[in-house]
Structure formats: C-alpha cells, structure tokens
Design brief:
Number of helices: 4
CATH superfamily: Histidine kinase-like ATPase, C-terminal domain
CATH class: Alpha Beta
Shape: globular
Strand content: 15-25%
Oligomer: single chain
C-alpha cells in the first residue's frame, strides 16, 4: 500500500512541476522503474505528454505491473528483462489510439493467478473505466504481456502536434 502512495506522490510531483497540464509518458515510466534501477529495463517511444488524469491512471497501472514484475515476474530474476514501448495505432473509424506495450522476458515461468487480486483488478479495470481505453493482460508462460490502448484525446494538447505518421512503428517489436 505504501508503494502505491509513493507512486501517486511521484506522479503528483511531476504534474505539479508541469503546472498540472500533463506529464511526459517517458518520465512516468522512468519514475515507476526508479526504485528498481536495473539495467534490464528497456523503455522507448515517441515524445508523448499525457493529460493529468491519464498520467495518474497510467502511472497507477504501470506501478502495479512493475510491482508484480519485481515480486513474481521478470524483475525477480537476474536474467529477466522488461520492455515498455509506446506508439500510435491508426484507426479509420475512430480517433487514433496510443498503445503502451509491456513485455516481460527471461523471468521465472509464469502461472496465471487463480483469482483477481486488487493489483490485477486495477490493471484490468482502471484504464477502461477512467479513460475509455482497453487492456489486454496475458499471463504467458514465458512472461507477462500487457497492452494498454488509450484514446488520443488523453494526450496533452501540448503534444498534439506530434507527427504521428513517423511514430506508428512498434519500436520494441511488441505490436500484437
């Protein structure tokens, strides 16, 4: 519970620094991994700033994924790695969406939890409820995979002029 509060405090600090207008997705991801400061974490994607509510929601989901990776997943093993990448997903029928892909590799074999605890429920339910996005969480034997998709409306207007055509490529090869 204390780590969740510290995670929220870190995101609030970041938002406060930016006058509550939004926060860089890259900095949010970096802050969630900061307590673990390992060389086996890869992050990357286009320069994106999320609006305040999206920044808080995404940081909470990423915190739960990171916590689970440290306790049970790839970050609980010296050989494990975590990749987090983000990219634009074009849509002809609706506005574009921002995809955030989490992939654990090389950790202990994964078994799906028998029930849904608070953290897993938060990962699956918070983003759709708060942002109208989608979550695909897989407990694959070779590593947890999670794909989050957020409507483009939640990207900060300060980042609205990003050339999305050059940022549609899945930078970490995790496009599903």
């Amino acid at each position: 519970m204390q780590s969740r509060i510290l995670s929220l405090a870190s995101t609030h600090e970041l938002l406060s620094k930016n006058s509550w207008c939004g926060a860089s997705l890259e900095e949010i991801v970096q802050r969630e991994f900061a307590p673990y400061a390992k060389d086996n974490i890869d992050i990357g994607g286009p320069s994106i700033a999320l609006q305040r509510d999206a920044a808080l929601t995404v940081s909470m989901v990423l915190h739960e994924l990171a916590t689970n990776a440290v306790k049970y997943g790839a970050l609980s093993d010296w050989n494990g790695r975590v990749s987090v990448g983000w990219f634009w997903v074009p849509s002809k029928c609706s506005p574009d969406r921002l995809a955030i892909v989490w992939q654990e590799i090389g950790g202990p074999p994964v078994t799906a939890p028998s029930g849904s605890g608070y953290g897993t429920g938060l990962i699956r339910e918070l983003l759709p409820y708060e942002l109208g996005g989608t979550v695909n969480l897989e407990f694959a034997r070779d590593g947890v995979r999670c794909r989050l998709e957020i409507p483009a409306d939640w990207v900060s207007s300060t980042a609205a002029h990003i050339n999305r055509d050059q940022d549609r490529v899945d930078p970490v090869g995790l496009n599903s």
